Amino acid sequence: MDTVNNVKSPRRRISTTVAGITGMLFLAGCATNAPQDTWQAKGPNAQIISDLQWIVFPIAGVVGVLVFAFAAYTMLKYRDKGQPIPTQGHGKPIAEIILTIIPALILTVVGVFTFRAIFDLAKTEDTEMIINVTGQQWWWEYDYPVQTELGIKSPIISSGQLVMPVGTKVLLRETSRDVIHSYWIPALNGKKDAVPGRIHLLRLEADKPGIYAGQCTEFCGLSHANMRMEAVALSKEDFAKWVAGQQKAYTSPADGTLAKEGETVFLNQCVRCHQVNGLNKADGTPAIAAPDENVYSGAAPNLSHLMSRNTFAGAIFDLLRKNCRADVWNAKSEEFGAKYLAGVSESCLNQTDLRAWLRNAPAMKPMYADPAKLTKTGGKYRGMPNLGLTEDDIDKLVAYLLTLK
Ligand SMILES: [Cu+2]
Asked: Ligand 1 center to residue 275 CA distance, Å?
């Protein structure tokens, strides 16, 4: 008897399954370690979007549930049971008027809040700082124009990690050197396309120090998925230290060191694309990179202070080893700045990925850098080519790159 009572009806089993799957889908939305979650705003601009979602999504949710419920009810109630075809009527003015007015009212309410959010996000007159952001296949360049009140006395050029002070209204001026990209740090604001020949504005402001992850969100070719970026927010004092660090003059490694030999390899192999500010050729004249002659986009990352950032190659690889990286990423707000500013020390360097990159970059990140295909790009690389370096040269280069703090 017991077993008979426990057998579930098929209908009951289906509804349990549906409820189970729905429940799991809901729970999947509750992940706490989700750095690119648009519901976890970490600054006022993202907050404006999040607030708007809290108005629009519940309304859309109620409308959606009502529509689905009504459709299901109609389908079940009037399903074919062999009954005659009901009388076919047309035009019910009352129903039509009500069903026009209700959606119009709902859309008006949603529209008012949406327009307010759009105008709030488009404000620029209270800008406190400007950073030029340029997308190219497949990394972002940051160029900080001279802003003496922020201590930026000469332009700073960096890549991968955008560094900004907290509680400051930062205005990004975005453009692109090749195809359309889109800049998106979900915790700080929505997306904004970077379009060749145009300048688009995007505000960012972070409430607290920390690292905020993002990724290119406009399909831009082969390595689109490998075009990531991070915004690093530092306290105002720490940001001033970062600025000072980026403007430090170049110091050549001491004679007789491995790093000094690396500098020579760098001059031979790398300066045709990469700039290191202050680096001189053997004859004492400045080594000026000419990426426009070698790379399709006309740019390669400026490596002057490579070891002050934590990532490379479109922020897909860490310059810090796993545990060192976690130490910075998980640091408490008050300790974060000092840990980030420490940069990459020899013991923390992620040698594996950096060496692999120097050995054969296109094997690490698909880039059409295959010399056989260069005819398509007028003889220019679309990324960093395989330079066929010896392990000896790689040892020297790593020693040299470690001095670029
Ligand atoms: Cu892109």
From this structure: 22
